[in-house]
Amino acid sequence: MTCRIFARMACPVIALGCAFAFSLAAAQGYPTRTISLVVPYVPGGIVDLIGRLTGPELAERLGQSVMVENIGGASGTLGAAKVAAARPDGYTLLIGSGSEISVAKLINSGIRYDGERDFAPISLIGTTPMVLLGGTRVKAETLAELLATARAKPGFYAYASSGVGSPNHLVGELIKMLAGVDITHVPYKGAGQTVPDLIGGHIDLSILTLSSAIPHINAGKIKAYGVTEARRSAAAPNIPALAENKELSALDMSVWWGLFAPAKTPAAVLQRLQQEYVYVLKQPKVVAKLTEQAVSIMATGPAELQSFVRSDTEKYRKVVQAANIRAD
Fold first, then answer.
1. pLDDT tens-digit map of 235-258
2. Do domains 7-128+254-323 and 129-248 have the same CATH topology?
3. 129-248 topology per CATH
4. CA dist list (Å): 80 to 91, 96, 162, 313
5. What CATH architecture is 7-128+254-323?
6. Where are the domains of the chain?
């Protein structure tokens, strides 16, 4: 009897030891071949820039090639789905963002992966604010004037986003809810045409990442009413935070990026990747280029990224449910 009890108690310990030994062995031999760094968007955007900026640096640290693989389509979910389904061995990684990790499953029941369960967090790369913009046909010079007009004339203004369920769509809906205004949402197929339409007077308002908008703001072609993070951005300290308005004091949303691996990737492999990637994110060349793009570099560990994703998902869940946003 005693032997049987001891055997039952010992089995989990032995299993744990075996799992640790496997993880350690995997890390000691890792990597031995090319690593695929999936960017779930077409070339040219900020996610692609992060991949092509950090990929070669990571390759140098790991002593193996890192291939940036652009898999665009379906708001980033095609690339994310490929990584979620990949073998959990550290050779397929994802530069993920809130769109495909936090929002996709909330608005589309056809998404088969779960952003929290199906990915192993490695490091939070950084965040950047969005900014509420006004076009040439909008007379309001300040946020207070804009909200006053929107409140007095429901449906008078329309705002563009880069698509249903995109972060700028969700922050637009949150602004409407917090301020109690009725502004019509106009989804675009990406953000590329937003600025020309603002300048041309074809749309009243838009919400873009700060880095995309700064050149046009500085040129005086469009108005900036405020950034969507709780504090002003160091990249544009003259632009107020929307939260400085008492009606929007609870507003704090950003675009973010993190490095992920498939769930069940050995812990020791994840630890190696986290150590090397954080080193890469702190290199002067990387810092300078990302700062230029208004990115606040975080370079955290897995626990911090996991906590960030949970918080971000819940924040978006409330907006999606309140505004009844669906993309399926």
1. 999 999 999 999 999 999 999 999
2. yes
3. D-Maltodextrin-Binding Protein; domain 2 (3.40.190)
4. 14, 7, 19, 16
5. 3-Layer(aba) Sandwich (3.40)
6. 7-128+254-323, 129-248
Within the chain, what is the greatest distance between any pair of CA atoms?
85
Quick check: helix, strand or coil at residue 11? Answer: helix
Q: Strand (E) positions, the chain?
A: 35-39, 66-70, 92-97, 119-134, 158-161, 184-187, 205-209, 223-227, 254-262, 296-297
First to last CA, the chain: 58
201: left (phi over 0), alpha (psi -120 to 50) or beta: left
SS3 7: helix
Q: 294: Cβ–Cβ under 8 A, 6 or more apart, which residues?
A: 128, 129, 209, 210, 211, 214, 233, 235, 236
CA distance linking residue 83 with residue 44, whole number of Å: 21
Other C-beta atoms lying within 10 Å of the C-beta of residue 48: 18
pLDDT tens readout for residues 24-59: 555 678 999 999 999 999 998 899 999 999 999 999
